[in-house]
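Lab channel / #folding
Pinned by the channel admin:
"Please post every new chain as: sequence first, then the structure tokens as a reply. Keep commentary short and put observations after the output so the thread stays searchable."

First post following the new format, from NK:
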Amino acid sequence: MIEKIDHIGIVVRDLDKAIRMYSQAFGLELKMVEQLEEHQVRIAFIPVGEVLIELVEPIGPGMIQDFLTQHGEGLHHICYRVTEINKAMAQIGKTLRLRDTKPRPGGAGSMVAFLDPQSTFNVETELVQRQREV
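Reply from TO:
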């Protein structure tokens, strides 16, 4: 069901500044930047081995802006890659509470769903089904 850790999400105030820091300090290369109007965010994917760092900057009101206001910048979520998100949600939903009742569009043409963090020891957890590699 779960293939691997897909990405680690980090909320930032300034996406361009964060991209520069990861590039200059760690020598990592930016893979892509995308704006998701429906989520009111700009995101950047930076590969580290097989795992991606997803930098997330709010561009308007929503879950990410709320997180930034309440907690400041920092670690936001861990995301697990699954082969078939509907099947994964049905299986995981037998044991854990789901925040999303059905998958929704995510970055890079993916489908995503979030779990209720209260059922995962207060860890914001995302599932992703990718149509293509980032």
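NK: The mean pLDDT is 97.
TO: also worth noting, The radius of gyration is 14 Å.
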